Amino acid sequence: MTDQTHPRTAMLRRLVAALTLASSMATLPSATWADDAKPATDVRIGQLPAANTLTIQGLDGSDGPLREVLAKAGAKPVWAGPFASYPAAAEAAKAGKIDITSSGFASLINEAKAKSDILLFAIEADHLGEGIVVRGNSGINSVRDLQGKKIAVNFKGGTGDYIVARTLEENGLSREGITTININNPEDGVAAFASGNVDAIATWDQYLAAAINVPGAKLLVDGKQIKSLNSWVHFVTRDFATKNPKALKALYDGLVAEAAKIDADPSLDSAAYKKQGAPAKIIDTIAGWKLKPRIIPIDDAGLARVQQIARQTYAYGFQENLVDVTNNVFDVTKVK
């Protein structure tokens, strides 16, 4: 549930130093626009330091397929940020400063629980590395060996906690004897793992790659093995979706087009991580996962997937009550 935070350059540099890696942060390109006879609708996108089919298009200097598909709908992309985390982007969205941003399923559940005006309009499946990494000297050789060990997660109900819960359920184990250590900043979680303060870490994306690169560390399970439903998700404000449904549908089509580009040329992912300052070893590790994104609308099948996630978070004790997500989704397939 790629939840509240995403890789931040400052902490990455500290992690890189611990792993004897080095990097520098690239600067987001600014967009330029041709004069239009009729003013185009601005689609204000909250950029995050992450690599998904939305954020990558804000890094390549050409806006990827978004510029063309939005132009046909009388709109244009305008990039804001980058925001350090989803909460910062969500605050901007609720203040009317941006229209679009990304996060993970945990954020959706929280927005639905709060009955906010942030809506899910696209799921980006199969494009997020996640798993549990264990220290080489931890004595952990199987999932059962996690009992009695300390596992770093970001917070209760977040991505790390979800990974642990899915791992245990998939292996027929209870949480009895499992100790999770909440370290809200996942970058700090990797640092705690590298220093030996915890035996294992459940994490995602660049954090997972950084943990794997700790000397002696090994990947215990990954997202595919535990049948994780977590993924990137893309949000829109209710106001924008209501007033500009055709522009939103065009943006969705731009995500689909970008997913096809990444499938044909996976180096686009690596280039995005490089522009965001990720070290070479981290980039190479992520490239080795061979992730291929799929963009899923919130039609009946997409909604069923979202509702399954909501049921899981309730069953795992992350929520006191089953959260109704139906008021926080938008189905672009119904836009004509």
Beta percentage is 15-25%
CATH class of the largest domain: Alpha Beta
CATH superfamily of the largest domain: Periplasmic binding protein-like II
Instruction: State the CATH topology of the largest domain.
Output: D-Maltodextrin-Binding Protein, domain 2
Low-confidence stretches: 4-37
State the helix count. Answer: 12
Rg is 19 Å
Overall spatial form: globular
Q: What is the residue-mean pLDDT, rounded to a whole number?
A: 89
Q: What is the N-to-C succession of helices and strands?
A: HEHEHEHEEEHEHEHEEHHHHEH
Structural class by helix and strand composition: alpha/beta
What is the rounded distance between the termini?
A: 31 Å
How many domain units?
A: 2
Total strand segments: 11
Helical coverage, percent range: 25-40%
Report the sheet with the most strands, covering strand number, pairing sense and barrel closure.
5 strands, mixed
The CATH architecture term of the largest domain is 3-Layer(aba) Sandwich
Please list the strands of the largest sheet in the order they lie side by side: 7-6-8-5-9
Put the structure in a nutshell.
This protein has 336 residues and is an alpha/beta fold.
What does this structure look like?
- By secondary structure, the protein is of the alpha/beta class.
- The chain has two domains: 9-128 and 231-334, D-Maltodextrin-Binding Protein, domain 2; 130-222, D-Maltodextrin-Binding Protein, domain 2 (3-Layer(aba) Sandwich), CATH 3.40.190.10.
- 37% of the residues lie in helices and 17% in strands.
- The protein contains twelve helices and eleven strands.
- The protein has helices at 9-18, 66-72, 86-94, 105-113, 159-170, 186-195, 205-212, 238-243, 245-264, 267-275, 280-287, 300-315, and strands at 41-46, 75-80, 100-104, 118-125, 130-134, 150-153, 179-182, 200-204, 218-222, 232-237, 294-297.
- Strands 7-6-8-5-9 form a five-stranded mixed beta sheet, with helices on both faces. A four-stranded antiparallel beta sheet has the order 3-10-4-11, with helices on both faces. It has a two-stranded parallel ribbon with strand order 1-2.
- Helix 2 (66-72) links the parallel strand 1 (41-46) and strand 2.
- Helix 1 (9-18) runs parallel beside helix 6 (186-195) and helix 2 packs antiparallel against helix 9.
- It is globular, with a radius of gyration of 19 Å.
- The two termini are 31 Å apart.
